[in-house]
Amino acid sequence: MTKFLTIILSLLTWTLPMSVGSSPNPDRLPPQNLEAEQGMLGAILIDNDAISDVIPLVDTDHLYRDSHQRIFQAVLDLYLAGKPVDLIILSDELARRGELDQVGGIDALTSLVASVPSSANARYHAGIVREKATARRLIESANAILRDGYSNNYTADQLIESAERSIFAVADGQSDDRLVKGPIAALAAMDQFSSCQTVGRPVGVTTGIPELDNIIGGLAPGRLYIIGARPSIGKTALAMNILDHATVHCRVPSLIFSMEMGYVELATRRLQSFARISSDILSGKIKATADDWERVGNAYNTIKDSPLDYDETPHQTVTKIMSRVRREKIRSNLGLVVIDYIQLMNGDGGRESRQEQITGISRRLKEMARDVGVPVVVLSQLNRKSEDRTDQTPRMSDLRESGSIEQDADVVILLHRPEFYDPNDRPGEALAIIAKQRNGPTGTIRLRYRKSFMKFESFDSPADDGAY
Q1: What's the pLDDT at 51?
Q2: 273 in the same domain as 337
Protein backbone atom coordinates (compact mmCIF):
# COMPACT_ATOMS: atom_id res chain seq x y z
CA MET A 1 0.00 0.00 0.00
CA THR A 2 2.89 2.37 0.76
CA LYS A 3 4.27 2.02 -2.75
CA PHE A 4 0.80 2.58 -4.19
CA LEU A 5 0.28 5.78 -2.17
CA THR A 6 3.74 7.02 -3.12
CA ILE A 7 2.86 6.68 -6.79
CA ILE A 8 -0.35 8.64 -6.30
CA LEU A 9 1.30 11.38 -4.25
CA SER A 10 4.12 11.75 -6.76
CA LEU A 11 1.55 12.46 -9.45
CA LEU A 12 -0.39 15.09 -7.56
CA THR A 13 1.77 17.89 -8.98
CA TRP A 14 0.26 17.01 -12.35
CA THR A 15 -3.31 16.77 -11.10
CA LEU A 16 -6.08 19.00 -9.89
CA PRO A 17 -4.52 21.45 -7.38
CA MET A 18 -7.60 23.53 -6.58
CA SER A 19 -11.11 22.31 -7.16
CA VAL A 20 -12.94 19.50 -8.83
CA GLY A 21 -13.31 20.01 -12.55
CA SER A 22 -10.29 22.29 -13.04
CA SER A 23 -7.91 21.21 -15.75
CA PRO A 24 -4.52 19.72 -14.86
CA ASN A 25 -1.80 22.37 -15.00
CA PRO A 26 -2.56 23.84 -18.43
CA ASP A 27 0.90 25.39 -18.69
CA ARG A 28 2.60 21.98 -18.68
CA LEU A 29 2.63 19.48 -21.53
CA PRO A 30 1.97 15.81 -20.74
CA PRO A 31 4.99 13.44 -20.90
CA GLN A 32 6.02 12.72 -24.50
CA ASN A 33 9.03 12.07 -26.74
CA LEU A 34 8.32 12.99 -30.35
CA GLU A 35 11.86 12.08 -31.42
CA ALA A 36 11.34 8.52 -30.18
CA GLU A 37 8.02 8.32 -32.04
CA GLN A 38 9.72 9.52 -35.23
CA GLY A 39 12.60 7.10 -34.76
CA MET A 40 10.24 4.16 -34.26
CA LEU A 41 8.15 4.98 -37.34
CA GLY A 42 11.25 5.67 -39.43
CA ALA A 43 12.77 2.31 -38.43
CA ILE A 44 9.59 0.53 -39.53
CA LEU A 45 9.72 2.22 -42.95
CA ILE A 46 13.39 1.29 -43.35
CA ASP A 47 12.92 -2.34 -42.31
CA ASN A 48 9.51 -4.05 -42.05
CA ASP A 49 11.01 -6.68 -39.73
CA ALA A 50 11.04 -3.98 -37.05
CA ILE A 51 7.22 -4.08 -36.97
CA SER A 52 7.23 -7.42 -35.11
CA ASP A 53 9.53 -5.89 -32.47
CA VAL A 54 7.32 -2.85 -32.00
CA ILE A 55 3.79 -4.33 -32.01
CA PRO A 56 4.11 -6.16 -28.64
CA LEU A 57 5.15 -2.88 -26.97
CA VAL A 58 3.11 -0.12 -28.55
CA ASP A 59 -0.56 0.49 -29.32
CA THR A 60 -1.77 3.29 -31.58
CA ASP A 61 -2.90 5.47 -28.68
CA HIS A 62 0.55 5.22 -27.08
CA LEU A 63 1.80 7.79 -29.59
CA TYR A 64 1.27 11.40 -28.55
CA ARG A 65 1.08 13.22 -31.87
CA ASP A 66 -2.11 12.69 -33.86
CA SER A 67 -0.27 12.42 -37.19
CA HIS A 68 1.98 9.72 -35.74
CA GLN A 69 -1.07 7.79 -34.55
CA ARG A 70 -2.58 7.89 -38.05
CA ILE A 71 0.68 6.72 -39.62
CA PHE A 72 1.17 3.89 -37.15
CA GLN A 73 -2.43 2.68 -37.53
CA ALA A 74 -2.02 2.58 -41.32
CA VAL A 75 1.25 0.65 -40.91
CA LEU A 76 -0.44 -1.80 -38.55
CA ASP A 77 -3.39 -2.38 -40.89
CA LEU A 78 -1.10 -2.99 -43.86
CA TYR A 79 1.02 -5.41 -41.83
CA LEU A 80 -2.01 -7.39 -40.62
CA ALA A 81 -3.26 -7.56 -44.21
CA GLY A 82 0.02 -9.20 -45.18
CA LYS A 83 1.21 -6.25 -47.28
CA PRO A 84 4.71 -4.73 -47.30
CA VAL A 85 5.16 -1.23 -45.93
CA ASP A 86 7.30 1.38 -47.70
CA LEU A 87 6.99 5.08 -48.49
CA ILE A 88 4.97 4.55 -51.68
CA ILE A 89 2.58 1.92 -50.28
CA LEU A 90 2.08 3.83 -47.02
CA SER A 91 1.46 7.17 -48.74
CA ASP A 92 -1.02 5.47 -51.08
CA GLU A 93 -2.84 3.90 -48.12
CA LEU A 94 -3.01 7.23 -46.27
CA ALA A 95 -4.27 8.98 -49.42
CA ARG A 96 -6.96 6.31 -49.81
CA ARG A 97 -8.08 7.08 -46.26
CA GLY A 98 -8.04 10.80 -46.93
CA GLU A 99 -5.36 11.28 -44.26
CA LEU A 100 -2.18 11.96 -46.27
CA ASP A 101 -2.46 15.74 -46.00
CA GLN A 102 -3.40 15.44 -42.30
CA VAL A 103 -0.09 13.72 -41.52
CA GLY A 104 1.95 16.29 -43.47
CA GLY A 105 2.09 14.69 -46.89
CA ILE A 106 4.84 12.65 -48.51
CA ASP A 107 7.46 15.09 -47.19
CA ALA A 108 6.54 14.20 -43.60
CA LEU A 109 6.90 10.47 -44.36
CA THR A 110 10.25 11.06 -46.04
CA SER A 111 11.48 13.00 -43.01
CA LEU A 112 10.63 10.00 -40.80
CA VAL A 113 12.95 7.80 -42.83
CA ALA A 114 15.65 10.47 -42.70
CA SER A 115 15.34 10.75 -38.91
CA VAL A 116 17.11 7.42 -38.23
CA PRO A 117 20.20 5.86 -39.82
CA SER A 118 18.98 2.25 -39.32
CA SER A 119 16.24 0.12 -37.75
CA ALA A 120 18.53 -1.26 -35.04
CA ASN A 121 17.01 0.87 -32.25
CA ALA A 122 13.34 0.37 -33.12
CA ARG A 123 12.58 -1.63 -29.98
CA TYR A 124 14.41 0.88 -27.79
CA HIS A 125 12.46 3.77 -29.30
CA ALA A 126 9.21 1.83 -28.84
CA GLY A 127 10.08 1.36 -25.17
CA ILE A 128 10.42 5.12 -24.72
CA VAL A 129 7.08 5.72 -26.46
CA ARG A 130 5.40 3.20 -24.18
CA GLU A 131 7.00 4.70 -21.07
CA LYS A 132 5.74 8.19 -21.86
CA ALA A 133 2.26 6.84 -22.64
CA THR A 134 2.25 5.03 -19.28
CA ALA A 135 3.13 8.28 -17.51
CA ARG A 136 0.25 10.05 -19.26
CA ARG A 137 -2.17 7.31 -18.24
CA LEU A 138 -0.99 7.50 -14.64
CA ILE A 139 -1.73 11.22 -14.66
CA GLU A 140 -5.22 10.55 -16.04
CA SER A 141 -5.78 7.92 -13.35
CA ALA A 142 -4.62 10.27 -10.60
CA ASN A 143 -7.03 12.96 -11.82
CA ALA A 144 -9.89 10.45 -11.80
CA ILE A 145 -8.96 9.38 -8.25
CA LEU A 146 -9.09 12.99 -7.06
CA ARG A 147 -12.44 13.61 -8.75
CA ASP A 148 -13.94 10.49 -7.16
CA GLY A 149 -12.56 11.47 -3.77
CA TYR A 150 -14.06 14.95 -3.91
CA SER A 151 -17.43 13.67 -5.14
CA ASN A 152 -18.49 12.14 -1.77
CA ASN A 153 -20.28 9.40 -3.73
CA TYR A 154 -18.09 6.49 -2.60
CA THR A 155 -17.05 4.75 0.59
CA ALA A 156 -13.37 4.65 1.55
CA ASP A 157 -13.09 0.97 0.56
CA GLN A 158 -14.70 1.68 -2.80
CA LEU A 159 -12.29 4.57 -3.42
CA ILE A 160 -9.27 2.43 -2.58
CA GLU A 161 -10.46 -0.45 -4.76
CA SER A 162 -11.22 1.88 -7.67
CA ALA A 163 -7.86 3.62 -7.32
CA GLU A 164 -5.92 0.38 -7.16
CA ARG A 165 -7.84 -1.04 -10.13
CA SER A 166 -7.01 2.07 -12.13
CA ILE A 167 -3.31 2.02 -11.25
CA PHE A 168 -3.09 -1.73 -11.79
CA ALA A 169 -4.61 -1.37 -15.26
CA VAL A 170 -1.84 1.07 -16.16
CA ALA A 171 0.90 -1.02 -14.55
CA ASP A 172 -0.31 -4.10 -16.38
CA GLY A 173 -0.34 -2.28 -19.69
CA GLN A 174 -4.11 -2.36 -19.91
CA SER A 175 -6.80 0.27 -20.25
CA ASP A 176 -10.56 0.44 -19.98
CA ASP A 177 -10.72 0.12 -23.76
CA ARG A 178 -10.33 -3.59 -24.52
CA LEU A 179 -11.03 -3.38 -28.27
CA VAL A 180 -8.93 -5.99 -30.08
CA LYS A 181 -8.72 -6.21 -33.84
CA GLY A 182 -9.94 -9.46 -35.37
CA PRO A 183 -6.61 -10.40 -37.04
CA ILE A 184 -4.75 -9.94 -33.76
CA ALA A 185 -7.24 -12.18 -31.95
CA ALA A 186 -6.88 -14.81 -34.67
CA LEU A 187 -3.09 -14.73 -34.37
CA ALA A 188 -3.35 -15.11 -30.58
CA ALA A 189 -5.62 -18.15 -31.02
CA MET A 190 -3.13 -19.72 -33.42
CA ASP A 191 -0.28 -19.07 -30.99
CA GLN A 192 -2.21 -20.83 -28.22
CA PHE A 193 -3.03 -23.75 -30.50
CA SER A 194 0.61 -24.05 -31.57
CA SER A 195 1.72 -23.93 -27.94
CA CYS A 196 -0.62 -26.80 -27.05
CA GLN A 197 0.64 -28.93 -29.91
CA THR A 198 4.31 -28.17 -29.34
CA VAL A 199 4.47 -28.47 -25.59
CA GLY A 200 2.06 -31.38 -25.42
CA ARG A 201 0.48 -30.36 -22.14
CA PRO A 202 -2.46 -28.26 -20.98
CA VAL A 203 -2.35 -24.49 -21.29
CA GLY A 204 -2.34 -22.89 -17.84
CA VAL A 205 -1.44 -24.10 -14.36
CA THR A 206 -1.64 -27.88 -14.11
CA THR A 207 -3.46 -29.42 -11.15
CA GLY A 208 -1.16 -32.40 -10.60
CA ILE A 209 -3.99 -34.81 -11.44
CA PRO A 210 -3.51 -35.88 -15.09
CA GLU A 211 -7.09 -37.04 -15.57
CA LEU A 212 -8.41 -33.67 -14.43
CA ASP A 213 -5.92 -31.73 -16.55
CA ASN A 214 -6.86 -33.78 -19.60
CA ILE A 215 -10.52 -32.80 -19.39
CA ILE A 216 -10.29 -29.14 -18.23
CA GLY A 217 -6.95 -28.30 -19.87
CA GLY A 218 -5.30 -27.01 -16.70
CA LEU A 219 -6.24 -23.79 -14.90
CA ALA A 220 -6.20 -21.05 -17.52
CA PRO A 221 -5.57 -17.35 -16.78
CA GLY A 222 -8.69 -15.24 -16.56
CA ARG A 223 -11.05 -18.11 -15.77
CA LEU A 224 -13.18 -18.77 -12.70
CA TYR A 225 -13.23 -22.32 -11.33
CA ILE A 226 -15.74 -23.47 -8.72
CA ILE A 227 -15.12 -26.54 -6.55
CA GLY A 228 -18.36 -27.45 -4.77
CA ALA A 229 -18.99 -30.10 -2.12
CA ARG A 230 -20.81 -30.79 1.11
CA PRO A 231 -18.80 -30.19 4.33
CA SER A 232 -16.00 -32.72 5.05
CA ILE A 233 -16.00 -34.16 1.53
CA GLY A 234 -12.57 -32.69 0.76
CA LYS A 235 -12.88 -29.48 -1.25
CA THR A 236 -10.18 -27.74 0.83
CA ALA A 237 -7.96 -30.82 0.51
CA LEU A 238 -8.30 -30.78 -3.29
CA ALA A 239 -7.57 -27.03 -3.40
CA MET A 240 -4.45 -27.52 -1.27
CA ASN A 241 -3.34 -30.42 -3.47
CA ILE A 242 -3.61 -28.12 -6.49
CA LEU A 243 -1.68 -25.38 -4.68
CA ASP A 244 1.01 -27.86 -3.62
CA HIS A 245 1.55 -28.94 -7.22
CA ALA A 246 1.45 -25.38 -8.57
CA THR A 247 3.88 -23.92 -6.02
CA VAL A 248 6.29 -26.81 -5.49
CA HIS A 249 6.45 -28.48 -8.89
CA CYS A 250 5.56 -25.56 -11.18
CA ARG A 251 6.90 -22.71 -8.99
CA VAL A 252 3.80 -20.59 -9.66
CA PRO A 253 3.38 -17.73 -7.13
CA SER A 254 0.02 -18.41 -5.48
CA LEU A 255 -2.26 -16.94 -2.84
CA ILE A 256 -4.98 -18.57 -0.74
CA PHE A 257 -7.67 -16.64 1.10
CA SER A 258 -8.80 -18.88 3.94
CA MET A 259 -11.74 -17.60 5.95
CA GLU A 260 -12.27 -20.84 7.86
CA MET A 261 -8.81 -22.23 8.64
CA GLY A 262 -5.72 -20.42 9.90
CA TYR A 263 -2.38 -20.55 8.11
CA VAL A 264 -0.92 -22.95 10.69
CA GLU A 265 -3.64 -25.51 10.03
CA LEU A 266 -3.23 -25.18 6.26
CA ALA A 267 0.56 -25.44 6.46
CA THR A 268 0.19 -28.48 8.72
CA ARG A 269 -2.02 -30.09 6.09
CA ARG A 270 0.74 -29.49 3.55
CA LEU A 271 3.28 -31.21 5.80
CA GLN A 272 0.86 -34.09 6.27
CA SER A 273 0.30 -34.45 2.53
CA PHE A 274 3.96 -34.30 1.49
CA ALA A 275 5.18 -36.46 4.39
CA ARG A 276 2.29 -38.89 3.84
CA ILE A 277 1.66 -39.42 7.53
CA SER A 278 -1.57 -39.26 9.50
CA SER A 279 -2.86 -36.18 11.32
CA ASP A 280 -2.66 -38.13 14.60
CA ILE A 281 1.13 -38.11 14.31
CA LEU A 282 1.37 -34.40 13.50
CA SER A 283 -1.05 -33.51 16.32
CA GLY A 284 0.88 -35.58 18.87
CA LYS A 285 -1.84 -38.16 19.49
CA ILE A 286 0.58 -40.82 18.25
CA LYS A 287 4.29 -40.58 19.03
CA ALA A 288 6.37 -39.96 15.92
CA THR A 289 9.03 -42.50 14.98
CA ALA A 290 12.45 -41.65 13.62
CA ASP A 291 11.10 -42.40 10.14
CA ASP A 292 8.18 -40.00 10.72
CA TRP A 293 10.57 -37.26 11.77
CA GLU A 294 12.62 -37.79 8.63
CA ARG A 295 9.52 -37.62 6.42
CA VAL A 296 8.30 -34.44 8.11
CA GLY A 297 11.75 -32.87 7.80
CA ASN A 298 11.88 -33.67 4.11
CA ALA A 299 8.35 -32.30 3.67
CA TYR A 300 9.32 -29.09 5.47
CA ASN A 301 12.32 -28.61 3.18
CA THR A 302 10.01 -29.16 0.22
CA ILE A 303 7.39 -26.56 1.11
CA LYS A 304 9.33 -23.90 3.03
CA ASP A 305 10.49 -21.98 -0.03
CA SER A 306 7.47 -22.64 -2.23
CA PRO A 307 5.79 -19.39 -3.41
CA LEU A 308 2.51 -19.73 -1.51
CA ASP A 309 1.14 -16.90 0.63
CA TYR A 310 -1.77 -17.18 3.07
CA ASP A 311 -4.41 -14.56 3.90
CA GLU A 312 -6.41 -15.77 6.88
CA THR A 313 -8.52 -12.62 7.36
CA PRO A 314 -12.03 -13.78 8.33
CA HIS A 315 -15.16 -12.59 6.50
CA GLN A 316 -13.32 -10.91 3.65
CA THR A 317 -15.15 -8.56 1.33
CA VAL A 318 -14.74 -9.01 -2.40
CA THR A 319 -13.35 -5.47 -2.64
CA LYS A 320 -10.52 -6.23 -0.22
CA ILE A 321 -9.73 -9.51 -1.96
CA MET A 322 -9.55 -7.76 -5.34
CA SER A 323 -7.27 -5.12 -3.87
CA ARG A 324 -4.93 -7.73 -2.38
CA VAL A 325 -4.81 -9.75 -5.60
CA ARG A 326 -3.90 -6.73 -7.71
CA ARG A 327 -1.07 -5.77 -5.35
CA GLU A 328 0.29 -9.32 -5.30
CA LYS A 329 0.10 -9.52 -9.09
CA ILE A 330 2.39 -6.50 -9.33
CA ARG A 331 4.63 -7.58 -6.45
CA SER A 332 5.16 -11.26 -7.24
CA ASN A 333 3.61 -11.92 -10.67
CA LEU A 334 0.84 -13.88 -8.99
CA GLY A 335 -0.25 -16.90 -11.03
CA LEU A 336 -3.02 -18.63 -9.03
CA VAL A 337 -5.67 -17.56 -6.49
CA VAL A 338 -7.73 -19.85 -4.25
CA ILE A 339 -10.64 -18.63 -2.10
CA ASP A 340 -11.96 -20.86 0.70
CA TYR A 341 -14.92 -20.34 0.59
CA ILE A 342 -17.44 -18.02 -1.08
CA GLN A 343 -20.26 -18.38 1.49
CA LEU A 344 -17.94 -16.97 4.17
CA MET A 345 -17.33 -13.78 2.20
CA ASN A 346 -19.15 -10.58 3.08
CA GLY A 347 -20.83 -8.18 0.70
CA ASP A 348 -19.59 -4.61 0.40
CA GLY A 349 -22.53 -3.15 2.29
CA GLY A 350 -26.08 -2.29 1.42
CA ARG A 351 -29.28 -4.07 2.32
CA GLU A 352 -29.26 -6.80 -0.30
CA SER A 353 -30.40 -10.30 0.56
CA ARG A 354 -27.71 -12.93 1.04
CA GLN A 355 -28.51 -14.40 -2.36
CA GLU A 356 -28.07 -10.97 -3.97
CA GLN A 357 -24.76 -10.52 -2.13
CA ILE A 358 -23.44 -13.87 -3.37
CA THR A 359 -24.58 -12.96 -6.87
CA GLY A 360 -22.57 -9.74 -6.73
CA ILE A 361 -19.55 -11.49 -5.20
CA SER A 362 -19.38 -14.22 -7.86
CA ARG A 363 -19.73 -11.68 -10.67
CA ARG A 364 -16.89 -9.55 -9.31
CA LEU A 365 -14.64 -12.56 -8.76
CA LYS A 366 -15.11 -13.40 -12.43
CA GLU A 367 -14.25 -9.82 -13.34
CA MET A 368 -11.15 -10.04 -11.14
CA ALA A 369 -9.95 -13.20 -12.87
CA ARG A 370 -10.24 -11.51 -16.26
CA ASP A 371 -8.80 -8.15 -15.20
CA VAL A 372 -5.78 -9.55 -13.37
CA GLY A 373 -5.26 -12.45 -15.79
CA VAL A 374 -4.95 -15.30 -13.29
CA PRO A 375 -7.00 -18.46 -12.71
CA VAL A 376 -9.23 -18.06 -9.66
CA VAL A 377 -10.39 -21.20 -7.84
CA VAL A 378 -13.33 -20.60 -5.50
CA LEU A 379 -14.64 -23.21 -3.10
CA SER A 380 -18.38 -23.37 -2.48
CA GLN A 381 -20.67 -25.18 -0.09
CA LEU A 382 -23.51 -27.26 -1.51
CA ASN A 383 -26.94 -27.19 0.10
CA ARG A 384 -28.54 -30.21 1.76
CA LYS A 385 -30.68 -31.22 -1.22
CA SER A 386 -28.21 -33.92 -2.27
CA GLU A 387 -28.39 -35.57 1.16
CA ASP A 388 -32.18 -35.76 0.96
CA ARG A 389 -32.06 -37.69 -2.31
CA THR A 390 -31.68 -41.45 -2.60
CA ASP A 391 -28.64 -40.83 -4.80
CA GLN A 392 -26.45 -38.33 -2.96
CA THR A 393 -24.41 -37.51 -6.06
CA PRO A 394 -24.31 -33.69 -6.19
CA ARG A 395 -25.76 -31.61 -9.00
CA MET A 396 -24.99 -28.08 -10.11
CA SER A 397 -28.35 -26.93 -8.77
CA ASP A 398 -27.06 -27.83 -5.28
CA LEU A 399 -24.72 -24.82 -5.25
CA ARG A 400 -25.72 -22.92 -2.16
CA GLU A 401 -27.37 -19.48 -2.09
CA SER A 402 -27.02 -18.47 -5.71
CA GLY A 403 -27.62 -19.70 -9.22
CA SER A 404 -25.28 -16.96 -10.41
CA ILE A 405 -22.26 -18.99 -9.24
CA GLU A 406 -22.83 -21.54 -11.96
CA GLN A 407 -23.56 -18.77 -14.45
CA ASP A 408 -20.34 -16.85 -13.75
CA ALA A 409 -18.09 -19.92 -13.49
CA ASP A 410 -16.12 -21.15 -16.47
CA VAL A 411 -15.74 -24.58 -14.88
CA VAL A 412 -17.74 -26.19 -12.06
CA ILE A 413 -16.28 -29.26 -10.33
CA LEU A 414 -18.47 -31.11 -7.82
CA LEU A 415 -16.82 -33.54 -5.39
CA HIS A 416 -18.50 -36.72 -4.18
CA ARG A 417 -17.24 -39.50 -1.91
CA PRO A 418 -19.72 -42.41 -1.64
CA GLU A 419 -18.07 -43.73 1.54
CA PHE A 420 -18.97 -40.50 3.35
CA TYR A 421 -22.60 -41.65 3.35
CA ASP A 422 -21.91 -45.41 3.52
CA PRO A 423 -18.47 -46.59 4.76
CA ASN A 424 -18.87 -49.78 2.73
CA ASP A 425 -19.67 -48.00 -0.54
CA ARG A 426 -16.47 -47.85 -2.61
CA PRO A 427 -14.11 -46.86 0.21
CA GLY A 428 -11.28 -44.60 -0.90
CA GLU A 429 -13.01 -43.65 -4.15
CA ALA A 430 -13.89 -40.05 -4.99
CA LEU A 431 -15.68 -38.59 -7.99
CA ALA A 432 -14.78 -35.25 -9.55
CA ILE A 433 -17.85 -34.32 -11.56
CA ILE A 434 -17.16 -31.71 -14.25
CA ALA A 435 -20.71 -30.34 -14.23
CA LYS A 436 -19.95 -27.33 -16.41
CA GLN A 437 -17.13 -26.33 -18.72
CA ARG A 438 -17.71 -23.30 -20.87
CA ASN A 439 -15.20 -24.27 -23.53
CA GLY A 440 -14.97 -28.03 -23.20
CA PRO A 441 -16.61 -31.33 -22.34
CA THR A 442 -18.23 -32.35 -19.09
CA GLY A 443 -17.92 -35.73 -17.40
CA THR A 444 -16.91 -37.60 -14.28
CA ILE A 445 -13.39 -38.56 -13.17
CA ARG A 446 -12.64 -41.30 -10.64
CA LEU A 447 -10.02 -40.31 -8.09
CA ARG A 448 -8.36 -41.95 -5.10
CA TYR A 449 -8.73 -40.09 -1.79
CA ARG A 450 -6.06 -40.83 0.80
CA LYS A 451 -7.98 -39.65 3.84
CA SER A 452 -5.12 -40.35 6.26
CA PHE A 453 -3.07 -37.55 4.69
CA MET A 454 -5.83 -35.67 2.86
CA LYS A 455 -4.69 -36.18 -0.68
CA PHE A 456 -6.50 -36.72 -3.97
CA GLU A 457 -4.61 -38.79 -6.53
CA SER A 458 -5.20 -40.64 -9.77
CA PHE A 459 -7.48 -43.60 -9.14
CA ASP A 460 -4.83 -46.10 -10.22
CA SER A 461 -2.12 -44.63 -7.96
CA PRO A 462 -0.34 -47.33 -5.92
CA ALA A 463 -1.61 -47.56 -2.35
CA ASP A 464 1.73 -47.09 -0.67
CA ASP A 465 2.58 -44.92 2.31
CA GLY A 466 5.95 -43.80 1.00
CA ALA A 467 7.12 -40.21 0.83
CA TYR A 468 5.56 -37.90 -1.72
Answers
A1: 84
A2: yes
Nearest to residue 274, comparing CAs of 251, 311, 306?
306
| 90 and 73 both lie in a single domain | yes
pTM higher than 0.85 for the full model? no
Q: Are residues 228 and 157 in the same domain?
A: no
- Tell me, yes or no, whether 215 lies in a domain: yes
Helix (H) or strand (E) holding 92: helix 87-96
Measured in whole angstroms, the distance separating CA 90 from the mean position of its chain's CA atoms is: 38
Tens digits of residue pLDDT in 346-402: 776 666 677 778 888 888 899 889 888 899 999 988 887 767 777 778 888 777 666
The CA distance from 227 to 246, in Å, is 17
Distance of alpha carbon 379 from its chain centroid, rounded?
A: 17
Residue type, 90: L
Say which CATH number the domain at 320 has.
Answer: 3.40.50.300
Angle at 67 between CA 65 and CA 70, to 5 degrees: 115
> Domain ends where: 160, 175, 200?
200
How far apart CA 268 and CA 240 sit, in angstroms, is 11
- C-alpha distances out from residue 238 to 218, 233, 285, 457, Å: 14, 10, 25, 9
